[in-house]
């Protein structure tokens, strides 16, 4: 199987890593991950984004753009789908431990295969509904992308935070979520505007903390 991206997508990836101040050595494993996703997507329908250049921007660079706000070392990615943002984050920070959780069997089957192929030892894949998942230890950051409205994400995943942990919700546009709708004991502390190289569309990161 080829692990090389088409030249234009490869250039976008390398330029994007530079813009995000990330090392160029990340490009080969990220490219390998996209090639695996593209291959499995033919049978498993993992993502609607099928063009390599769009996948670089909307999947890889979008996931990596949140790095400045993520606190490790224990991270959970809820409703990770094909591993977004979890796999790019885990490749960028091999010193962190990530749990990638999804209720869908096709997604977790792909993820287990990808983690093995990429020889990642800092990722655990969990197939479960988040509301049923009760690990012994909490997480420093619980993140999700395109998973649920902020209040629903907080209600479903808040129990996974360590005492000083944070929730981060990645959003496509400025959220019209009502902060008042958050469960008692939680508040939105900030909404950060994400700069994703090459993407004009607005991207946001909502940061939610315990009161
Ligand atoms: C729209 S997809 C987003 C996937 C990925 N985060 C991304 O940005 O491409 C939402 C994912 O959440 C998963 N999901 C939905 N409800 C869930 C639940 N209660 N617990 C765990 N995963 C859930 C779905 O299986 C799906 O893969």
Automatic annotation (TrEMBL):
**Protein name stated in the entry:** Ribosomal RNA small subunit methyltransferase G
Query: Where is the protein situated, by its record's location annotation?
Result: Cytoplasm
Q: Tell me the protein family, please.
A: Belongs to the methyltransferase superfamily. RNA methyltransferase RsmG family.
Outline what the protein does.
Specifically methylates the N7 position of guanine in position 527 of 16S rRNA.
Q: Which terms in the GO cellular component ontology are assigned? A: cytosol
Q: Which reaction does it catalyse?
A: guanosine(527) in 16S rRNA + S-adenosyl-L-methionine = N(7)-methylguanosine(527) in 16S rRNA + S-adenosyl-L-homocysteine
EC assignment: the record states 2.1.1.170
Organism in which the protein naturally occurs: Ectothiorhodospira magna
GO function terms (MF aspect): rRNA (guanine-N7-)-methyltransferase activity
Q: Pfam families given for it?
A: GidB (PF02527)
UniProt binding sites for S-adenosyl-L-methionine: 79, 84, 130-131, 145
Q: What class of enzyme is it?
A: transferase
UniProt-listed InterPro entries: rRNA_ssu_MeTfrase_G (IPR003682), SAM-dependent_MTases_sf (IPR029063)
State the UniProt keywords alphabetically.
Cytoplasm, Methyltransferase, rRNA processing, S-adenosyl-L-methionine, Transferase
Q: Does the keyword Endoplasmic reticulum apply?
A: no
């Amino acid at each position: 199987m080829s692990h090389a991206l088409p030249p234009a997508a490869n250039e976008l990836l390398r330029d994007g890593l530079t813009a995000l101040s990330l090392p160029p050595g990340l490009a080969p494993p990220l490219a390998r991950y996209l090639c695996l996703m593209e291959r499995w997507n033919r049978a498993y329908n993992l993502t609607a984004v099928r063009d390599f250049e769009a996948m670089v921007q909307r999947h890889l660079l979008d996931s990596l753009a949140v790095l400045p706000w993520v606190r490790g070392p224990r991270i959970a990615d809820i409703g990770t789908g094909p591993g977004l943002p979890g796999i790019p984050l885990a490749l960028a920070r091999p010193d962190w431990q990530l749990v990638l959780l999804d209720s869908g069997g096709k997604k977790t089957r792909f993820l287990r295969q990808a983690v093995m192929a990429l020889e990642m030892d800092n990722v655990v894949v969990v197939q479960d509904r988040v509301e049923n998942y009760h690990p012994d230890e909490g997480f420093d950051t619980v993140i999700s992308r395109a998973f649920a409205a902020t209040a629903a994400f907080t209600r479903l995943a808040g129990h996974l935070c360590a005492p000083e942990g944070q929730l981060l919700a990645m959003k496509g546009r400025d959220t019209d979520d009502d902060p008042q709708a958050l469960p008692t004991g939680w508040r939105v502390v900030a909404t950060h505007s994400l700069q994703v190289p090459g993407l004009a569309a607005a991207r946001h990161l909502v940061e939610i903390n315990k009161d």
